[in-house]
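Second attempt. The first submission of Isoquinoline 1-oxidoreductase beta subunit had a stray character pasted in from the spreadsheet, which I only caught after the job came back as garbage. Lesson logged: always re-copy from the clean sequence file. Corrected sequence (739 aa) follows.
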Amino acid sequence: MIKMIKLHSRTLSRRSFLITAGGFGVAVAFGGLPGQAVGAAVAPAAEGNYRPNAWVTIAADGIVSIMSPASEMGQGIMTTLPLLIAEEMDADWDRIRIVQAPSDAEKYGNPGFYGIQLTGGSESTRGYYDLLRLTGAQTRKVILASAAGMLNVPVGELTTEPGRVVHARSGRSFGYGEIAADGALPDPLPQATEADLKPADRWRYIGRRTVQRVDVPSKVDGSAIYGMDVQRPGMLYGTVLRAPVQGERPEAIDDAESRAVPGVVQIVPLSYGVGIIGETVEATQRAKDLLKVTWSRSSRVRSYTSGSLLEHYRSVGRDLSQTGVEALSEGDAEGALAGAVTVITADYMSDLVCHATMEPMNATALVKGDSVEIWAPTQGPTHTQRFAAEVVGTTPDRVKVNTTLLGGGFGRKAEADFIVDAVSLAREVEGRPVKVIWSREDDIRHDKFRPLEAQHIQVGLDADGNILGWRHRIVADSIFARTMPDLFASRGGHDDVVTEGAQFNYAVPAHRIEYIRQDNGLDIGFWFAVGVGYTRFGIECVIDEVAAATGADPVQLRLKLLPEQPRARNVIETVAAMAEWDRKRDGRALGLAYSDAFGSHCAQIAEVSLNRETGAIRVHKVWCAVDPGVAIQPVHIEGMMIVGIANGISHALFEQINIVNGEVQEGNFDTYRVIRMSEAPDIEVAIVPTSGSPVGGMGQVGLPPVGPAIANAVARLTGGVRLRHYPFLTERVLEALGA
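This time the job returned cleanly.
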């Protein structure tokens, strides 16, 4: 059972287009009315010319259309961002229509992502928060100025209530629709500053539990349009046969049998595979199965075997003579370790993991001359424009991107490979749209996996058990080297996202973080919480190792290490109270972990049991306390925490990609194991916002703490058996028990 509660409430650099046999790069720096269907996730804007700015249109019937600039992939952002505008402009939420913003970075780019349109990194709310609130405030000032002209009164005599302007002195008022129909936009338009923003005690929508997500009704009644649902007149279907080993290209193609399949329109040789265009999905899949291709054998990935490489990564981490790029240096960590009475040393590792979004990769493209139109579940409209333009030989402004709902994203749909597939095939049948659909096997075997990585951590203690120094070495491939090579080079070969989360706010006198890059040719990418998902695994488990070595309580040790971090202390104390930390359990144990990633503070406690005969871990309950700074949508925050926790348990216990001699061994959910509904624990979420704090990201916050919380619970249950390798497969647990 999953249960949600609210326990407390307190007040681009230059691009490099990599359309090669080796893969595709993507640059990442890290409707209807509410209650009605949001058709195609792109409702038409309200009719009328009353547009105070690029974000808002008001129709004569009072319907207010608000642009939503981010991609909706289940995180509720299609509600959160427009809500900020609606709050400040004093709109009537029951008269709001949400419109998916077009691909136009100049108007709708995210300030948190260098002004491009990109959804990821838990950066949407943080990036747009100030801009959209100011936009709403400016809209309200425009409306007031228009009404003042209609009433021939000073603006200062007017006030607003949801959807109306009121002149208390005369008793007159106008609805926003009346103003749109009869009022004139002031010239020049008034601008807004922070002084025009509402104080928190006047918020009508922000922080309220009564605001429901606008995308949910259409998902319930089936009218929602995902990329897979797109239908266009004259549409053809496409698929691509890719090499079993990444980076290879077709050298010889025997397509005689494939061309004979009824409904096949064209076979298209590509630099990275073979495309098939057909009248039906079935025809393209049948033709794909009949293709006989001789692949090149020159890719470096042919020597990639994940199991042996991970052991190599661990040895690199342990070999202190192999220096890496310094990501952080505070104090003299090496000197502190040399002078320590006790040094705790541990290696933590994680396997490759796959995104496995419920909606596999797909996109629809139409090419007409130098113009391209795309319908796709993409996280990155700006990059979609750029890659599509590169394929066709046009400019990004000639590419229109229609962003649909996403059936899961987790960073995978920020990539461009599935976009390039669709545009490459549509170019061959100019004037007819082509929908490319990846099979689940395509999706898993040709994913951009979270990197294989090993961490070597050393913690030095004095005679009283106090931490003197902390050294953290992270060994992994680079994401930035592929996706943002210029940025990677400018930072001296440091990959911020791979080491993300290694910096913490625990008070230690000396702290050093090193990144030792490994390059074995495999494209790896952004996966839910990316680096934080494994760096916090290592950090939080080592904190418990320190507690065990010094006889300290894990809760009290963390509080001791966070003397000037009231938000961190609050979530830890809150979750400890929720779980009744000091109460003994028969046959079960509790484990704690904390994270401050993405600008939010989150502490979790997992209650687990262990079958010592099989090595199977059962997570019975997870308590979660989270401080998002500003809790814009409390109900939705609870939902995101549950999603993050479920995904975190899945990747900590089950998820694993194995590559042998360059070939991915998993292909579907029969071999790529994910958490099942019957394995989902009871989850309780407490939201403890801190008044006056900046708004934090939420989309990925729930994942990082749950894995180490499980591992720490197992250690307490077994008297100190440490699980140091994601995922905690039963055979690994049994091996640890027998060690």
